[in-house]
Amino acid sequence: MLSAFCFKQSHAQASTAQDVQQLLYDIEKLTQFKAILSDMQTGYTILTQGYGEVKDISEGNFNLHSAFLNSLEAISPAVRQYGRIADIIANQASIVTEYKNAWNQANASGHFSASELLYLNSVFTQLLSQSVDNLTNLTNILTANTLRMTDAERLQAIDHLYSDTQNKLTFLRGFNNQVAILSLQRAKEQNDIQMLNKLF
Predict the structure, then answer these.
(1) Per-residue pLDDT tens for 142-155?
(2) Overall number of domains in the chain
(3) Domain that holds residue 84
């Protein structure tokens, strides 16, 4: 019985020794975790301060970029008073007036078939649509806070629109001349036929 008691006591002492050893091990781990946590806190503080400095620098940089970009959205008087703008508007007005006159004459002449009139209408409609696009682009170029462009880029874009409207007006005038010549030829042929009918 005494040996059983000794065994239990020896087993309890061994268990207590293991518990103490585990406790020491846990304390050591806790100390390591505290050191890691302290290092993390120091790293976080450094990171936060560094982030704050980077943020301040980037905000200053952003403010500079923002001021620059905002200046690109403003329209200078030099751009607003550029002579090509009036030329573009005059060309657009001529395109509308000349296409309407040509269409009315071709339609009223009686010298064109329905399919030919349909073709003429499609050419005029496409030309008018492209002209409206040019006016929209011009409006965007001349409206503040719409496009981000330097004055040089705005003037270049206006020059491009001017060139395009000139080309469209030149095309329209050539096309209208061909339509008028065709109409005159058909009128002459019709008159010749009528004269021959009168003679015979």
Answers:
(1) 887 777 788 888 88
(2) 2
(3) 75-199
